[in-house]
């Protein structure tokens, strides 16, 4: 893990201080930061994370290990990103957003953090929390209205406008987004039999549907 101060990176593991320009290449913790990225003092990055062209990470954000942030990703105040997260190009993560481990955020996904913004009314104290639980996928160009939770391993289709909480393993499409099915942890459609059991055709893992809730067996 490393953090940034005065344009220098500090390696917490062994206390080594590297020159910022050197740090733009792979360092001993295998963190890669493209020279065009702006990392504000205090930002925390986990080992093995890659930050690509034109990203901006503000000082109070925390990014886990082995994440990939594609081109032009903004990570705002107090945003927390878990291990193994992939964020594709052109995504802004605003204050209030919590992304758990192994989430996939497709290109140009839009997050929001105020429900009823007005340019002439200050609503910074009304930022809403939006949680994306572990293993979930958000398809390209989807819009996530703030204040909701996207359940673990849910799959949000490209272009969806998500306005409500989404259940774990739910498959969601459209505007406003509606559920059209269920998927496995591997992202494969689950077809439940009369005993409400489904098998992931990719991994063989079984799932049970009970009271509109899917659990992995
Ligand atoms: C949502 C998704 C996972 C569904 O895939 P699938 O299970 O193979 O679904 P199908 O193609 O069989 O489509 C099922 C139905 O949903 C509709 N549908 C599929 N994706 C949709 C979407 N994004 N928005 C609206 N409707 C969609 C299909 O038209 C079809 O409707 P029909 O039954 O009336 O014909 C996929 O279409 C998708 O959007 N993936 C995201 C891709 C992406 O953004 N990748 C980013 C990295 S490049």
Q: What CATH first level would be assigned?
A: Mainly Beta
H/E series:
EEEHEEEEEEEEEEEEEEEEEEEEEEEEE
Return the CATH topology: UDP N-Acetylglucosamine Acyltransferase, domain 1
Structural class: mainly beta
* Biggest β-sheet: strands ordered side by side in the sheet: 3-2-1-6-9-12-15-18-21
Number of DSSP strands?
28
Biggest beta sheet summary: 9 strands, mixed
The CATH superfamily bears the name: Hexapeptide repeat proteins
Give the termini distance in whole angstroms.
35 Å
CATH architectural grouping: 3 Solenoid
**In angstroms, what is the radius of gyration?**
19 Å
Strand content: 25-35%
- Helix segment tally: 1
Q: What portion of residues is helical? A: under 10%
> How many structurally independent domains?
1
Quick one: overall form? globular
Quote the average pLDDT: 89
Bound molecules: coenzyme A
User: Uncertain spans, ≥5 residues at pLDDT below 50?
Assistant: 11-28
How is this structure best summarized?
By secondary structure, this protein is mostly beta strands. The chain contains 1 helix and 28 strands. The two termini are 35 Å apart.
Please characterize this protein's 3D structure.
With 217 residues, this protein is mainly β. It has a single domain (28-114, 123-189), classed as Hexapeptide repeat proteins (UDP N-Acetylglucosamine Acyltransferase, domain 1). The protein is 2% helix and 34% strand. It has 1 helix and 28 strands. The strands form 5 sheets. It has a 9-stranded mixed sheet. The chain is globular and about 55 Å long. It starts with a strand and ends with a strand. Bound molecules: coenzyme A.
